[in-house]
Write a structure and sequence with these properties.
Length: 206
C-alpha cells in the first residue's frame, strides 16, 4: 500500500464502531467524524453499481466535515498567496475532488476496521483540537491517527490529518511545491484536474 493510500486507509476508516459515551456531545469532533463516516459508508453500500452517484452524494455529505479552503492553502504553502483568486478556487475545487474521490475509494475497500478513539487534546490555540485514534485492521499493524480540527464560525472543521506522526498536508506541500516550481500554479491545477478526470473516466478539460 502506498503512503498516500495508508494515510487515507487510516484517516477514512472511522466507521461506526466507536463506543459512545452515555452523554456524548454530538457536536464534538469525535462524534462529527463518526456520524459523517457512517453516512458515507451507507451511501457507498447503497450505490455500489453507480460510482458517479456515490461520488456526488459522498461529496455533499463530506463537504461539511473539512475546511477544504484551508487544507488547500496549507498544502500549496507559500505559493498560495501569489495565486490569483481564480487559481485558488480552481486549486480548491480539484483538491477537494481528489480528497473525496480517494475517501470513497478507501471506504469501499476497508469495511471491517476497528477504531479505538483515545480522546482529544488541545491544539495550538483554544479553537483547535486534535483527535487521537488507533486504527486496527485484521492482519495488519495498528496505525496511529491524528485529525486536527479548528472550531470555526461554522463549527468544527478538519484541516489536517497525520498518520504515524506524518502530516498529510506537509506531504502534499512538498509534492505540490515541486510541480509549481517546474510548471507553475496552472501546471498543478492541470495535473490535479487530469488525475481527477482519469479517475472519473472522462477526458481532462482543455
Amino acid at each position: 500500500m502506498t503512503r498516500i493510500k495508508v494515510w487515507f486507509a487510516a484517516a477514512l476508516l472511522l466507521l461506526p464502531v466507536f463506543a459512545l459515551a452515555v452523554q456524548a456531545d454530538p457536536t464534538s469532533p469525535q462524534e462529527i467524524v463518526r456520524g459523517v463516516s457512517k453516512d458515507v459508508l451507507e451511501i457507498i453500500n447503497a450505490n455500489t453499481q453507480d460510482p458517479a452517484r456515490q461520488q456526488t452524494l459522498a461529496d455533499a455529505r463530506l463537504v461539511p466535515l473539512a475546511d477544504f479552503g484551508r487544507m488547500t492553502a496549507l498544502a500549496v504553502g507559500k505559493y498560495w498567496r501569489s495565486a490569483t483568486p481564480e487559481q485558488q478556487q480552481a486549486l480548491t475545487t480539484e483538491f477537494r475532488a481528489m480528497l473525496v474521490r480517494t475517501w470513497v475509494a478507501v471506504l469501499s475497500n476497508h469495511k471491517g476496521a476497528q477504531v479505538d478513539v483515545k480522546g482529544a487534546r488541545p491544539g495550538d490555540s483554544a479553537d483547535e483540537q486534535t483527535v487521537h485514534s488507533v486504527v486496527n485492521q485484521p492482519g495488519q499493524q495498528a496505525i496511529a491517527l491524528d485529525l486536527d480540527f479548528e472550531n470555526t464560525a461554522a463549527g468544527w472543521k478538519v484541516y489536517d490529518i497525520s498518520v504515524e506522526g506524518i502530516s498529510f498536508i506537509n506531504s502534499h506541500r512538498n509534492q505540490f511545491g515541486s510541480v509549481i516550481q517546474k510548471d507553475g500554479v496552472d501546471g498543478l491545477i492541470r495535473q490535479l484536474a487530469a488525475s481527477n478526470a482519469k479517475a472519473a473516466g472522462r477526458s481532462p478539460a482543455k
